[in-house]
Amino acid sequence: MVRSLWSAATGMKAQQTAVDVIANNLANVNTTGYKTERAEFKSLLYQTMQTKTTSSDGTQKPINAQVGLGVRNAAIRSTFKQGNFNAVESDTAFAINGDGFFALQYGDSVRYTRNGDFTWAIASNGYALTSSDGSPVLDDTGKPIVVSGDYNMNKIGFSQDGSLCYPDDTNNMQPIGIRIGLYQFNNPSGLTRVGDSSYEVSAASGEAINESTNANVKRSFIAQGYIEQSNVQVADEMVNLIVSQRAYEMNSKAITTTDTMMEQANNLKR
């Protein structure tokens, strides 16, 4: 019976983690570029209750007699299903149609995000394209995107492949040699979450794959004037919340039941 106490306790801890993840999803339902997370679990060790045989002549048993010792959290996986696009009145808002990520410079490190709500910021040598917190957006060569002050920023345009364009003498938009960098990963679920809907490379995710230099990946496209909403489905999260709550209650009931059985066993001597 002591096993049931500890097994049920691990179940309560696991379901508390599930509720924490669901609560975070619901809290970020309106966060641009946020991706739904899902708690995954795995069983703990199994204890053998009987030997290989239960007969005097040594006949082998066809079925093992083992009891599990509970559950624990195995991973919290992000689901990178594309969210809905929302039109906004900004020429520097971008949504990615595909599997790509934007790259942002954070000090000495690079972070990747699906949040394309950018803006122009004044730089020493012109204007830099940055995120809302001032982090420079990187181009397809891994350098910050900076446009010379000689350009009229109101006339800067963007093509679907992320190229910055400017009108020529005949008012036709022409690329100026700068392209917003788009990067993919072999295992995006392995990326390390660092907040602000951004991620960092990890050993599990693999190195970033530059879409402009790798012909083996399907290219993404950029939609100007749109931002990608979170892919959280509120109805699904509420159902998952109910399931986790009921599982938590059942595990707590197993603890109280075990406690009652132990109390009855202790009272046998009376």
Please explain how this structure is put together.
The protein has 270 residues and is α+β, with helices and mostly antiparallel strands. The chain folds into 2 domains: 103 residues, no CATH class; 140 residues, no CATH class. It is 22% helix and 31% strand. It contains 2 helices and 21 strands. The strands form 8 sheets. It has a 4-stranded antiparallel β-sheet with strand order 7-8-18-17, with no helix packed on it. A 3-stranded antiparallel β-sheet has the order 9-6-20, with no helix packed on it. A 3-stranded antiparallel β-sheet has the order 10-11-12, with no helix packed on it. Strand 17 and strand 18 form a beta hairpin. Helix 1 packs antiparallel against helix 2. The longest helix has 33 residues. It starts with a helix and ends with a helix. The model has no long low-confidence stretch (mean pLDDT 90).
Oligomeric state of the chains present here: single chain
Series of H and E elements:
HEEEEEEEEEEEEEEEEEEEEEH
Q: How many strand units?
A: 21
Number of helical regions: 2
Classification by helices and strands: alpha+beta
Strand content: 25-35%
Task: Tally the structural domains.
Answer: 2
Distance, first to last CA: 21 Å
- What is Rg? 27 Å
- What value does the average pLDDT take? 90
SSE topology:
Elements (H helix, E strand, L loop, with lengths): L1 H26 L9 E7 L2 E3 L17 E3 L2 E8 L6 E3 L5 E5 L4 E5 L2 E5 L2 E2 L1 E5 L2 E5 L15 E2 L9 E2 L4 E5 L5 E7 L3 E2 L7 E4 L2 E3 L8 E2 L10 E4 L1 E3 L5 H33 L4
Antiparallel strand pairs: 1-4, 2-3, 5-21, 6-9, 6-20, 7-8, 8-18, 10-11, 11-12, 13-14, 14-15, 16-19, 17-18
